Amino acid sequence: MSSDNAKKMAAEAALEYVKPGSVVGVGTGSTVNFFIDALASMKHDIDGAVSSSEASTERLRQHGIAVFDLNGVPELELYVDGADEINRHRQMIKGGGGALTREKIVAAVAKTFICIADDSKQVTALGDFPLPVEVIPMARSYVARQIVKLGGDPVLRENFKTDNGNVILDIYNLNIGKPIELEEKLNQITGVVTNGLFAARSADIALISDGKTVTTLKN
Ligand SMILES: O=C[C@H](O)[C@H](O)[C@H](O)COP(=O)(O)O
């Protein structure tokens, strides 16, 4: 598939930013899977990785890359992850795979966040992709009612539990005109663990590919 080729090109371009002897923060998803496969070629040069999901941990370990607990890693130079949508400010919607909370934690620790994506993820305004919100199970109905008050249509992701044992509400039809404000507002609802807006902490660099070339977006 051509989008797979674009994902692979963006993922491989991120290798350039991996420093020998470092621990690399690794995200989750189909684009990141290409990054993990590419990172395997550097497994003897890096110390190992910190992972944002059980799925990525398994793939990293299959390649023989050591995976460390984030609590034992005081500093992280680099975090590489995909996105469901990314705008020109490199703000993103993430969590299509349900890994948003661990992703946001690793992104918070990392000095540099690189988003890798095929060009179908680039948008002028965030919000066509339903915004994932991770919720403590007993709070699901309350949180859904609060989201309706904000103008969104929350839908429970069926037969899905996050790596943290929580549920996901996917919010449709939400106005994301002010991403940073909305990210904070949603996180203030009791019972919300976090939401998939990565606006307050956007990507520092985006590597976007159309399958032929890779474009680098940064300040
Ligand atoms: O929870 C999943 C992550 O936020 C992914 O980074 C995001 O869904 C993009 O995944 P993919 O690279 O498969 O499109």
From TrEMBL:
Positions annotated as active site in the UniProt record: 103 (proton acceptor)
Lineage top rank: taxon: Bacteria
A GO MF label: ribose-5-phosphate isomerase activity
Enzyme Commission number(s) of this protein: 5.3.1.6
Pfam family for this entry, one: Rib_5-P_isom_A
InterPro entries in alphabetical order: NagB/RpiA_transferase-like (IPR037171), Ribose5P_isomerase_typA_subgr (IPR020672), Ribose5P_isomerase_type_A (IPR004788)
Pathway: Carbohydrate degradation; pentose phosphate pathway; D-ribose 5-phosphate from D-ribulose 5-phosphate (non-oxidative stage): step 1/1
Residues that coordinate or bind substrate: 28-31, 81-84, 94-97, 121
Enzyme class: isomerase
GO biological process, any: pentose-phosphate shunt, non-oxidative branch
A single cellular component GO annotation: cytosol
Keyword terms of this UniProt record: Isomerase
Catalytic activity field: aldehydo-D-ribose 5-phosphate = D-ribulose 5-phosphate
UniProt family annotation: Belongs to the ribose 5-phosphate isomerase family.
Quaternary context: Homodimer.
Biological role stated in the UniProt entry: Catalyzes the reversible conversion of ribose-5-phosphate to ribulose 5-phosphate.
Designated name of the protein: Ribose-5-phosphate isomerase A
Gene expressing this chain: rpiA
